[in-house]
Design goal:
This protein is an all-alpha fold. It has 19 helices and no strands.
Length: about 475
């Protein structure tokens, strides 16, 4: 049975909101109860681990979603992916362990890597069950799978805070227990609701055929994994864990602001795959989808920046607000670019243009790494944010240059217009009144007014978009 877009979006958004709430609770507890150095060390270890396990997927995760959406056998796809995560995950952890024994068993960050890494290994092993569920578009089931770890982590930390002073190693144990719980729950839910199981009797030729097909996407994964946390790791090495704590706080809030994108992105892959198979490109509605994405992302830019300093300094005791004003502003400008890039990437991925996508990400990584190397020593955290912005612009420009659907060549226009509306509203509102509740209200009203006169908001056409996205 075909599931409507809005139904899938609702289920996916629900789990994302819950994850963000629990994730925010965890982040708030750690950032306010730990000193910046300890907080930075935990984030340093997490940045390295998340990069490693993202690399290990080798693009197989996205390929599995695409194959399941195309109608391939779920048991065979699950078996291949389970085999992949078991082999690569265990190999990576054994290499980390050998490195720890040889080089750094007295180093705190190395110790954190080894212990937290056990939990991330469990999380990695749960990936196949989530990806097959996503490919089957069973987003309600996926929501239950995806929320467990953050929920357990947040609840346990709240208990620890109420019982005693928050200490490093109890926190680490909570991280491991939460990830183990999510793996167990994911496997149980999949077995109970999807069924079919998996087999370890994998033909070597079949497995390597999947790896070969995913090879161009493997390059993309390598690059996006490096992009995701390279700045964190570079700051940790070049500056200090204190500066990393400050930057990671701003970046975490920026990640949370991408909720609209993370809600819609996994749903678009199976939808656009079917659209490409049917050869039905409704470009008018696709452009409308992009315009709505730009409106939402620009609104997030406005809201994050007008409330940042008073709220963040208020809830963190002045630790992470004013110090990150410029950093969060630059990072927030990346959000519309991420929407555009994900939209075009999804179309190209559905079209099978994996080599072109790889080239785009090589360019993006090159700009980001070069920017980090040049800008971080000079501008510190603001330099890292600016490097990420430049890399996002470079990717968008290349994707648009390679676009083969002529009608979509103009989708950059609403991006520019909506961002300008948000920036103008952000800086103009405080000139009218210094009272927070007044200038926030003025900023929002001015933003809506500017969107209306520039033709970005057309309230009478939402039904057409709903029809388009529920057809596939």
């Amino acid at each position: 049975m075909k599931k409507g877009f809005l139904q899938s979006l609702s289920a996916n958004t629900t789990q994302l909101v819950l994850n963000q709430v629990f994730g925010l609770g965890t982040f708030y507890i750690l950032s306010t109860h730990l000193d910046k150095s300890t907080f930075g060390q935990i984030n340093f270890a997490l940045a390295i681990l998340l990069t490693i396990f993202s690399l290990l997927s080798m693009g197989v995760d996205q390929l599995i979603i695409k194959k399941i959406a195309s109608g391939e056998d779920k048991r065979r796809m699950l078996s291949i992916f389970v085999f992949h995560v078991l082999v690569t995950g265990l190999t990576a952890y054994l290499v980390m362990g050998a490195t720890w024994l040889l080089l750094g068993n007295n180093n705190l960050v190395f110790s954190l890597l080894m212990v937290i890494g056990i939990g991330k290994l469990f999380m990695f092993w749960s990936t196949p069950f989530k990806q097959v569920t996503s490919g089957l578009e069973q987003f309600k089931l996926l929501a239950w799978m995806a929320v467990v770890s953050n929920a357990v982590r947040c609840i346990c930390l709240i208990v620890l805070v109420t019982k005693e002073t928050l200490l490093l190693w109890p926190i680490v144990m909570v991280f491991v227990a939460a990830d183990l719980t999510e793996m167990i729950i994911s496997i149980w839910l999949y077995t109970k609701n999807v069924g079919g199981g998996f087999s370890f009797n994998i033909k070597t030729r079949e497995y390597f055929a999947v790896l070969k097909e995913a090879l161009p996407q493997t390059g993309v994964v390598l690059i996006t994994s490096a992009l995701a946390r390279f700045d964190w790791i570079f700051i940790g090495f070049m500056l200090s864990t204190v500066k990393l704590a400050e930057y990671s706080f701003a970046y975490k809030v920026f990640e949370m602001s991408t909720l609209p994108l993370t809600a819609i992105a996994p749903i678009l892959i199976p939808k656009f795959t079917k659209m490409v198979q049917q050869g039905n490109y409704n470009t008018a509605e696709l452009k409308r989808l992009v315009r709505y994405e730009m409106v939402v992302s620009a609104l997030v830019i406005l809201l994050v920046n007008i409330v940042w300093s008073p709220i963040i300094d208020g809830i963190t005791g002045g630790k992470y607000g004013q110090v990150n004003v410029v950093t969060i502003f630059i990072l927030s400008l990346c959000l519309p670019l991420l929407f555009i890039n994900n939209f075009l990437w999804t179309i190209y991925f559905a079209q099978g243009r994996l080599k072109m996508i790889l080239t785009a990400f090589i360019i993006t990584l090159s700009v980001n790494v070069l920017g980090d190397i040049i800008l971080i020593p000079i501008y510190k955290n603001e330099g890292a944010a600016l490097a990420f912005l430049l890399a996002s612009v470079a990717q968008a420009v290349y994707f648009l240059f390679k676009n083969q659907i002529a009608e979509l060549n103009v989708i950059w226009r609403p991006l520019v217009i909506c961002v300008c509306c948000a920036v103008i509203s952000k800086f103009a509102a405080p000139l009218i009144s210094a009272v927070p509740i007044v200038y926030v209200s003025v900023a929002i009203l001015l933003f809506v007014f500017l969107l209306r006169i520039t033709g970005q908001v057309k309230l009478n056409r939402t039904e057409n978009l709903r029809t388009l996205l529920s057809e596939y």
